[in-house]
Amino acid sequence: MEFRYLGNSGLKISEITYGNWLTHGSQVENDAATACVRAALDAGISTFDTADVYANTKAETVLGEALEGERRESLEIFTKVYWPTGPGGKNDTGLSRKHIMESINGSLTRLQTDYVDLYQAHRYDTETPLEETMQAFADVVRQGKALYIGVSEWTADQIRAGHALAKDLGIQLISSQPQYSMLWRVIEGEVVPACEELGISQIVWSPIAQGVLSGKYQPGQAPPAGSRATDDKGGADMIKRWMDDDLLTRVQQLRPLADEAGLTMAQLAVAWVLQNPNVASALVGASRPEQVEDNVAAAGKKLDADLMKAIDDVLGDAVIDDPSMTEKTAPKTRVV
């Protein structure tokens, strides 16, 4: 495993972060989830990412139980706040001071830890003054409940404003967690340049595009049984953007490139995002331990310029790189 600094902080995290969105507490049984976490630890992953909204708090509980007994100082545990949790009452969502202060306490209890290394705003809250949000995050840090602050799916302008307030409050906003893959490159135009200027790293989610870049989905064929595209608990909705025969055909044309590089297609996809120097870590999930082992092999791999160009040539106009998509796909009001 290779390690990178997160933003301009002194915190190092593993190049591969294990995330439990759409799996723990939902898609897979707890014993399978625990086996995946053990496989991640065995492979050298030290960084684990979750959120209170995943499986309506169950994912945090599963992760906390799976990490029980591990040396806390050897781990980096990340979680997030914004989306509705619990019964979804009027204050069970967003980035108000009330919701943040109550949510961090719930997350720490479920994760069985006194603090998280990184506490992230899971989306931008258009209904709460940013000053209120950042003051609450600053208090969470000063109480020792979080060491650093991050954001997820914020625009470049939102990141700049949040970073300025954090600096004034004496806390460190060091990370952004956006979607990023060979197919979804919307952060490259504005978010990455802003973050490079401010000393903020990316922790990217969906580097394998919901599994599409693994090559498991064949054009003109039904999705494999048990795959994300057949999951009616949320996975199928997330992947449907990519279930297009033309795109799936192009993805299959990546296979010889992966073979030539000595990588599986999933490894090629993960290694591709790690070529971006602003990316500190790629988030991967798993429903089976062998998937973790496969993804981890992408750490430390260098892809030469010819291979990167060949990938671009294959994917062509299937790539989505419009910077405005970050704002367009964000919630305009709090989701209840």
TrEMBL record:
CDD domains: Aldo_ket_red_shaker-like (cd19074). InterPro entries: AKR, K_chnl_volt-dep_bsu_KCNAB-rel, NAD(P)_OxRdtase_dom_sf, NADP_OxRdtase_dom. The keyword Oxidoreductase applies. GO terms for cellular component: cytosol. Keywords: NADP, Oxidoreductase. PANTHER family: HYPERKINETIC, ISOFORM M. This is Aryl-alcohol dehydrogenase-like predicted oxidoreductase. It comes from Nocardioides marinus.
